[in-house]
Amino acid sequence: MSRARRSLLDIDEDIAAGRADGGGSVEVGPPFERQPRRVGAVRDMDQSIGLLEKEAAELERIKALLASGGAVVELDTSLVDPSAFRERLDYDVSDLTRAIQARGQIVPILVRPHPEEEGRYQIAYGNRRHAVCHELKRPVRAVVKDLSDAEMIVAQGQENAARKDLTFIEQARFVANLRKVHPAIEVQREIGIDESLMHRMVRIVAALPEALIQIIGRADRIGRPRWDKLAEEVKKLREVGTPEEDIVARAKAAVDAAKARTKEPKPHTLFEVVFDVFVSGKPRPVLGLSVEGGGSLGKVVSTATGSNLKLNDQAFMDHLVEQLPELYRQYREKRGLPTAGIRIAAE
After folding, report:
1. Last residue of a domain, which of 117, 133, 166?
2. Which of 322, 321, 312, 314 minimizes the C-alpha distance to 291?
3. Fewer CB within 10 Å: C terminus or N terminus of the chain?
4. What count of other Cβ atoms lies within 10 Å of the Cβ of residue 189?
């Protein structure tokens, strides 16, 4: 019997006899680490073994929680709210769904009584397990423990460190969200993160519209340097007055085009296409414009910061400039954006 399987069986007996008294504290976990990429023909088996190993590690932490005062209960999933500091950009729960259907929910989630709504609970960690149980219409097993906001940070940071599978941008969002409500020194101490890395993460997330990050998604295989470069270029656009909705619209157009070309693009591919839109260094496409029946009208040249329209017919260019205010109004109206006019003046 493997060490992971043996640990699961041993620890689950302790959980079944969990204590119901309160109190205690949560121990601090190690810093974030990167999850190595698994490839090869044995990937499915490797993922199954990895799931067992994660469960064993999580059960060790649950065992410690029970020892320090915590109760295992079954909760209606509708009474449990997501973590206040969620870091995941998506929730692929297919592997976990199969495991819970086959073996039940081995690992309880960790919740605290909701600080603002009586009778409800808030997840410290275990959002994926909660989502699966909700989908399967079954109660979720949970350790209920009174936790302060600081203890919530520690608990979730500990789980993040142990899982080792959060991408860089998910880690960065988690850290940035914590910094919104807690001092830097507290975040640094509680999750064990390097000070310079913490500040870089916060800066990157602040520079990028949240909607753009959501469009890109998890972006596995993409580390800090490339996110840093993307954030730098997007920040430049915002500093010269480019509306955030326009930046997001350009990113969405690139991602939609990638999805149209490939049925299920890889998570890192979505980052790549957005990166190409905003960051210079790669050849930019040129679209030729021709009149039906022959003859060149001009071309559209895409650049890192926008597109240039070059027309051979000056009269048509003058006509187009006259129509720009109405065209821009229609563009914004179609996308549900606030009405905004265009002022045309010589420079």
Report:
1. 166
2. 312
3. C
4. 14
Q: How confident is the model over 70-78, as a mean pLDDT? A: 87
- Residue pair 28/162 in contact (Cβ under 8 Å)? The answer is no
This prediction's pTM: 0.50
Q: Which of 131, 146, 166 is the last residue of a domain?
A: 166
Q: Is there a contact between 141 and 134 (Cβ–Cβ < 8 Å)?
A: no
| Residues near 83 by beta carbon (within 8 Å), at least 6 away in sequence | 122, 123, 124, 125, 127, 152, 156
Domain check: are 138 and 101 in the same one?
Answer: yes
**Strands 109-113 vs 140-144: parallel, antiparallel or unpaired:** parallel
Residues 10 and 143 in one domain: yes
Strands in 121-125's sheet, in edge-to-edge order, are 71-75, 140-144, 109-113, 121-125, 80-81
Domain range for 25 is 1-166
Cβ atoms of residues 154 and 28 within 8 Å: yes
Q: What residue has token string 């009474």?
A: 79
What is the number of structural domains in the chain?
A: 3
Within 10 A of 199 (CB to CB), how many other CB atoms are there? 15
Query: Quick check: is 179 in a domain?
Result: no
CATH number of the domain encompassing residue 60? 3.90.1530.10
In tens, the pLDDT along 98-137 reads 888 888 888 888 899 998 899 999 998 888 899 899 999 9
